Amino acid sequence: MTAVNWILAIMAAAAVIGGVCSGRTQEVGQAALSRCGDAVALVISLTGAICLWSGLMEIAKQAGLTKKAAALFRPLIARLFPALQEDREAIALIAMNMSANLLGLGNAATPLGLAAIQRMSALPGGAASREMITLVVLNTCSIQLIPATTAALRLAAGSRSPMEILPAVLAASAVSLAAALGAVFACARLFPDRRER
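Above: the chain's sequence. Below: its structure in token form.
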């Protein structure tokens, strides 16, 4: 089991134990059964939005827009990923990953990020370790111009203006990304890789 699976299992066990200890086992059972339907409805509503944007990303790839995105992001990628400057495939994957994250498509960005990580892991001498960390940070704290997944969640919850959170999302994601990248570069200076020593 992964760490996330352990955390979820511990939370579920704690909820059941808490219900038993407080004598509210009936409420715990009712909540578990009633929320199953909500979970299925949420998955169905999210699937539509994710399929739409994933399809648009595939169309963009077939139309050559991803190559243009790679060219657009190349100066930024060259600064953030210095070991990948000559690897066009890795740069294209990272550019598509960044584009998906800008659109708020975390689920569409995940396979692109995994492909980029796999490409980086093929570099000789473990030279991609810092680049891998940077990519993970970019995925975790990416700026979202269009928070599509969050908007879909708000729409499913009955919001009349699901995109009204856009200014707050932009501000929060920009601050978190700046702080995370600052931490990455600070740690890179404080704890340089062995190959740089």
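The chain has a mean pLDDT of 79.
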